[in-house]
């Protein structure tokens, strides 16, 4: 059986796989190579390089392991038509993403951008910046899954009251309260911090409208770390220009890379993070912690793998 990586994994991780699975032929490439595509039974990919034509050409393909959480750029219908098993690494992002989100919140609350700017300009001013406390705040987490739960856990350590909004309204881990998404509007006025970790689905596209920003307190921080199409870019710009909220922290955008001509670059109440909140030196290491036991099960004929996905639903 051939397992074909469309990226070149770290040498130590490659060695671990080869030694642990001597019966498997592993191929590590940068990009798509036709000869490997045609003969591989398993493909390991970041999910952005496969096309409809590739899926048609992959005659022996049975399983795609996606070393990422998002699959929106994958040829989903072609994969579904061939009943190809898909699983991903959902959950491995929770530690680095939660730390990134907490870092941004604390930076704004404790006026670190102001302090750094004064340092660059050799200004000694300990009375400016108007620092506030995270302690005692209320955070509304839209999409309290694995990542949202980890954010909730860290925020609760700062005595932050956490409210979750998910599809079902069922209780979620590390949320003091949980409500269904159709009650989002009722929860927004309570939130000092609004954090979205939602994936990209038909239901979540442009879920946040101008009216939602009107419902947020003027001192609110809005953070989008899920997918960029949660809110239309022009709506977001209008809300920030009108200062309906205090600040936005954006790690994802409708168009990536964010165009140089975008008005978002020029606003003083937005932090632009180039879709890097999940980056970590331990990213592939954590991915392999899911891949290895999944490969063991697959070799035994068990296709009930961790993070098995319904490809057409997007999760």
UniProtKB/TrEMBL annotation:
SUPFAM superfamilies on file: Formate/glycerate dehydrogenase catalytic domain-like, NAD(P)-binding Rossmann-fold domains
Record keywords: NAD, Oxidoreductase
Residue ranges of every copy of the D-isomer specific 2-hydroxyacid dehydrogenase catalytic domain listed in the record: 24-304
A single GO molecular function term of this UniProt record: NAD binding
Signal peptide from the UniProt entry: none
D-isomer specific 2-hydroxyacid dehydrogenase NAD-binding domain span: 102-277
InterPro entries for the chain: D-isomer_2_OHA_DH_cat_dom (IPR006139), D-isomer_DH_NAD-bd (IPR006140), NAD(P)-bd_dom_sf (IPR036291)
Short name of any one Pfam family annotated for the protein: 2-Hacid_dh_C
Annotated family: Belongs to the D-isomer specific 2-hydroxyacid dehydrogenase family.
Protein name, UniProt field: D-2-hydroxyacid dehydrogenase
Organism whose genome encodes this protein: Ureibacillus yapensis
């Amino acid at each position: 059986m051939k397992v074909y990586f469309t990226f070149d994994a770290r040498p130590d991780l490659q060695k671990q796989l080869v030694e642990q699975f001597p019966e498997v032929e592993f191929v590590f490439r940068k990009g798509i190579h036709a000869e490997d595509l045609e003969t591989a039974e398993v493909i390991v990919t970041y999910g952005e390089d496969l096309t409809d034509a590739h899926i048609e050409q992959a005659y022996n393909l049975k399983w795609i392991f996606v070393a990422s959480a998002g699959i929106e750029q994958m040829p989903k219908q072609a994969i579904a038509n061939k009943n190809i098993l898909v699983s991903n690494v959902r959950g491995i992002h929770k530690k680095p993403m939660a730390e990134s989100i907490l870092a941004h919140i604390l930076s704004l609350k404790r006026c670190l951008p102001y302090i750094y700017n004064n340092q660059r300009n050799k200004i000694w001013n300990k009375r400016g910046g108007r620092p506030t406390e995270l302690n005692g705040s209320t955070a509304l987490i839209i999409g309290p899954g694995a990542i949202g739960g980890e954010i909730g856990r860290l925020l609760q350590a700062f005595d932050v009251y956490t409210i979750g909004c998910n599809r079902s309204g069922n209780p979620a881990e590390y949320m003091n309260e949980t409500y269904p998404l159709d009650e989002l509007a009722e929860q927004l006025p309570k939130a000092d911090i609004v954090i979205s970790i939602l994936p990209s689905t038909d239901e979540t596209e442009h879920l946040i409208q101008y009216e939602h920003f009107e419902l947020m307190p003027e001192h609110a921080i809005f953070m989008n770390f899920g997918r960029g199409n949660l809110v239309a870019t022009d709506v977001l710009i209008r809300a920030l220009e009108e200062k309906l909220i205090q600040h936005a922290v954006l790690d994802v955008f409708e168009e990536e890379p964010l165009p140089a001509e975008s008005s978002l670059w020029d606003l003083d109440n937005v932090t632009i993070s180039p879709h890097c909140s999940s980056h970590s030196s331990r990213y592939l290491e954590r991915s392999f912690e899911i891949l290895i036991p999944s490969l063991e099960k697959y070799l035994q004929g068990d296709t009930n793998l961790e993070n098995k996905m319904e490809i057409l639903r997007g999760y």
